[in-house]
Amino acid sequence: MRRAGVALGAVVRSALLAWGGVIAASLLLAACGASGVPTSPASSVPSDSGAARDERDCLWLLDSRINTLFPDRYAQYWVAALVIPPGGAVTIDGEFPAARYISFNLYDEQLAPIDALTDVEIVPAAGSTNPFVEAADRNASPRAYQLRLIAAVPPADTAQRAPNTLYSARTLGPVSVPANLAVLFYRRYVPDVGREAAALPRIRFELADGRSISGPAACGALDRLSFAIPDLAALPDPVADLPVNTAAFVDLLWLKFFSAVSSQGNRVFATPLGPAVYETIGSPTEGGGGFASNRDNRYIYASISRQLGPVVALHGRFPSAPVTSDGRSPMPGGSMRYWSICTNDGNTLAVFSCLYDEQLRTDVAGRGIIVVSRDGDRPDNATEACGISWLDWGAADNAVLIYRHMLPQPEAVFPQAIQYIPGPPGQFEASVMGEYFPYGHHMSRAEFEALGCPVDARRLPAVVTPPPTAG
């Protein structure tokens, strides 16, 4: 049994904020000239010393082994809770990895996004190459960069932003104010095969008086803090696994994600409460994201339930994306940078399994069929030989499918991207996505096997389930 997502998110936030407090104490001691905290002259060149390696490794508090907040199986995540020195900055030195995508996202204490830098926005160091920009050599060397994180309100005119700078601020009513506490996520998607072990960026604190300090003293508390981060998916919750469907429909109801609050309404959409909940919290037309959502991604999600059938068949046309895992250079083009579909536990916010663009079996027009089931329920014809891509349902009877689009072409070029779906959720997904809409239907194993081999998608239902309304 598993703990509900709200409580789980609180555990993660508490751990991050506690670690931020440790760093804050270390910075305060350093600013007062306390002994025991290493200091060094400010430098833009990463050090090869043991202290620098220690700082690089342990200031990144959490990594992808913490399975929560709906991660993608083909992305790697590292998280740091940082306190920006008053009048100073946090400096991040790194090298561009060999991967499909990287980004740095800032979040507030509720894990709502604040600011971000995407790989193509990062200016490389002098003499270096950014391999993510169009037509760049993905194997170029050197490939260094440096970022700065400051407590400041970003300029209203984006053209006035300082290069390679992340701005930490909070909105209080109509006013934005600088914020010295920041939660930083570093993401790396689909590393090239054989080049997965890229070094992590190194973090330094730049004080207002010009000194540069690293964090080994603060890192000494990491082992103690680690005990406060339990195996979140194993914590008990007496209601999480009740075999009752409250959210799923036979033909999937796809909803665009706008905020953590509005998405929780979906959990009762298949009950008599559905219309009232949809009309109150479940039908926003805008939102600030949540669950540490990535600025470069947009999402639609749908509930699935074994109470309605142990097999879900998805079909539609899927966007093109560059193939990069084999190391080809320069990066090829596509309708978007990346897409994936994942099965998730809506209670723990954990991911079970994912399928991403390079793995999908499609015909010449980009159309594909995805079967979602447990291994024991997998139809005999749910194989590549029959034109099928298979996705593991996971352990939960009631699960959530999340379909993410990353960095699509402009709307004039590829208007079917999730990014261009307006609210309210459930109203425009099918009309905007058109032939790229992922029709989904619950069925039995025998029903799917009766489709034969190869499977003709035209024999699968193509029904759009509307959101619950009082009418």
Automatic annotation (TrEMBL):
It comes from Hydrocarboniphaga daqingensis. This is DUF1254 domain-containing protein. It comes from the Bacteria.
